[in-house]
Specification:
By secondary structure, the chain is an alpha/beta fold. It has 13 helices and twelve strands. The strands form three sheets. A four-stranded parallel beta sheet has the order 1-12-10-11, with helices on both faces. It has a four-stranded parallel beta sheet with strand order 3-2-4-5, with helices on both faces. Strand 10, helix 10 and strand 11 form a beta-alpha-beta unit. It is flat, with a radius of gyration of 22 Å. The model has no long low-confidence stretch (mean pLDDT about 90). The structure holds iron/sulfur cluster.
C-alpha cells in the first residue's frame, strides 16, 4: 500500500497570509481573532495554544480599549471597523487582498448607482447567506444587496430593475454560469411575454465573475488526483463550506472518497481500508484537503494510515 499527499491541497494564499500575520503579531503580545481564523478546528486550536483568543461580535463590543483584534481573510463589513474605532481597539487587518478588491468593487457599484432613476438597481451576490465573506460584502451596500444561492431563488429579484451580479470568491464557476443563464432567460421571458411583473423593456443586467481562481482551479487538479488513487481521504473541517464543496467534487471523481477531520477518524475506517486492500494488495491511497486544511494535519492522517 502506498500513501501520498496531494501537492495542490492545503491553505490558499489568503489563509496562509492571515495565519502568518497572527503568528507574527502574537510575538508582540496578546491578540484576539474575530471568528475562527480558518474553518479548521485543529489549526484554530494550534494557534490558541500560541495565545490567540477567538472572539465573537459580542466580545468585540466589550473588549477593553487598546486590545488588538485580527480580522481574518474573509473580511468584515464597515460596521466592524466602526465598532473597533469607537472602542479604541487596534485592528490588524488580514483580509485577503482578493476579497478586499471585491469589497471595493461592490462598494463602488453601490455608490455609483444607489440613486439611479427611475429605478434603483439591485446588487446581487451569488453566495451563501450568513457566510462571513458574504456578510462583509453585503456591508459594502449598507446591507441592501440580495444574496442568492441558486436559480430557484430568482423570484426574489425584480426584473424591471437593473441587476448587478457579483459572486462570493469561493463559489463554483459552473454554478455562477448557471445563475447568469437563468437570469438572462428570465429577462428575455420578460421581454417576450410581458408578464405582469415586467414592463415593455426589461432593465439592464451586468455580471462580474469574481470567483477566486485559487479555489476554482483546484477542482480539476483535485479530481485528477482522486482518479489516480484507489481510495482517497479528504481532510477538512466540518464547518468549512469549501471543504464540503471540494469533497463532493472528489467523490464525483472517485466514489471511494472518505471525509475525515482528524487522524483519529481514520481508525473508524480501518475495515474499509482492509476490505479494499484484500481486493488490491498494491492499494494506492491519496490524501488531500480543502483550502482551509493545514499540511501538518494531512501529514498526521498519512502517518496514521501508515500505522494501520
Ligand atoms: S480562496 Fe481566494 S479569495 Fe478566498 S482567502 Fe483564499 S486566496 Fe483569498
Amino acid at each position: 500500500m502506498t500513501c501520498s499527499i496531494d501537492t495542490n491541497s492545503g491553505f490558499c494564499f489568503g489563509v496562509t497570509r492571515a495565519i502568518k500575520a497572527a503568528e507574527s503579531e502574537l510575538q508582540n503580545g496578546s491578540l484576539c481573532c474575530l471568528g475562527d481564523i480558518v474553518h479548521n478546528g485543529q489549526e484554530v486550536a494550534r494557534l490558541e495554544l500560541l495565545g490567540l483568543r477567538t472572539i465573537d461580535y459580542d466580545d468585540l463590543r466589550t473588549l477593553p480599549s487598546h486590545s488588538r483584534v485580527l480580522l481574518r481573510a474573509h473580511g468584515e463589513p464597515p460596521s466592524t471597523y466602526w465598532i473597533a474605532q469607537q472602542r479604541g481597539i487596534e485592528v490588524i487587518d488580514a483580509t485577503c487582498p482578493v476579497v478586499k478588491k471585491l469589497q471595493d468593487r461592490i462598494r463602488a457599484c453601490y455608490e455609483t448607482h444607489r440613486n439611479d432613476e427611475p429605478q434603483p438597481p439591485q446588487i446581487v451576490i451569488y453566495g451563501k447567506p450568513g457566510h462571513a465573506e458574504v456578510i462583509g460584502l453585503q456591508g459594502q451596500t449598507n446591507n441592501t444587496a440580495i444574496v442568492i444561492e441558486s436559480p430557484d431563488q430568482l423570484d426574489r429579484l425584480d426584473f424591471n430593475r437593473p441587476i448587478y451580479l457579483f459572486s462570493q470568491t469561493t463559489k463554483s464557476v459552473e454554478g455562477f454560469q448557471e445563475l447568469v443563464a437563468s437570469i438572462e432567460a428570465r429577462r428575455s421571458k420578460c421581454r417576450d411575454l410581458e408578464t405582469s411583473r415586467c414592463r415593455e423593456e426589461s432593465a439592464s443586467f451586468e455580471y462580474h465573475d469574481t470567483i477566486c481562481r485559487n479555489v476554482a482551479n483546484r477542482v480539476a487538479q483535485l479530481q485528477d488526483f482522486a482518479r489516480s488513487n484507489d481510495i482517497v481521504f479528504f481532510v477538512g473541517g466540518t464547518k468549512s463550506s469549501n471543504a464540503k464543496v471540494l469533497f463532493n467534487h472528489c467523490k464525483e471523481a472517485n466514489e471511494h472518497t472518505y471525509f475525515v477531520s482528524s487522524p483519529d477518524e481514520v481508525e473508524n475506517l480501518k475495515f474499509e481500508i482492509i476490505n479494499h486492500k484484500s481486493k488490491n494488495p498494491d492499494l494506492k491511497v491519496g490524501i488531500c484537503g480543502a483550502t482551509s486544511t493545514p499540511l501538518w494535519l494531512m501529514e498526521q492522517v498519512k502517518a496514521k494510515l501508515e500505522t494501520l
